[in-house]
């Protein structure tokens, strides 16, 4: 026990992060709930290109920057669903709520992993999610098809964030 305390005091906070120890379970819970809340994913293409370059840039950064990016991505995902009216969908409301709780738990745990100086990632991430929201939900008035497209894009992001988390 003393060894663990000593290691956590000298290692970067990213390596002693509780989120990392529970990452697999939390990630799997989010992915399963995302799938179950709405059934099969749409084949519709997103009007906003996926930010592969942004993920590639982050992949080359230090662990703490990766954690900040993962946390900020989860915040953006949470905000998309939390501030929206998904009444047009046929999603299971209990599973949708549990999905949001799972994402929110990860945000809280990730926030405890990063230093106060590393508040946000880049404005590129915010701009991407703003465009995604504007090109889907805002233009369609929150149609069921636009929510399904966002759910599909969320799955893509969670898959990419999983790869990023596995590199820590």
| Helix/strand class | mainly alpha
Main β-sheet description = none
Question: Low-confidence spans: pLDDT under 50, at least 5 residues?
Answer: 1-15
Shape: globular
CA-based gyration radius: 17 Å
- β-strand percent reads under 5%
Query: Could you estimate the helical fraction of the residues in percent?
Result: over 70%
Count of discrete alpha- or pi-helical segments spanning 4 or more residues: 7
Distance between the termini: 23 Å
Question: What's the average pLDDT?
Answer: 85
Compose a concise summary of this entry:
With 168 residues, this protein is mainly alpha-helical. It has helices spanning 2-10, 18-38, 52-59, 63-82, 93-111, 123-140, 144-166.
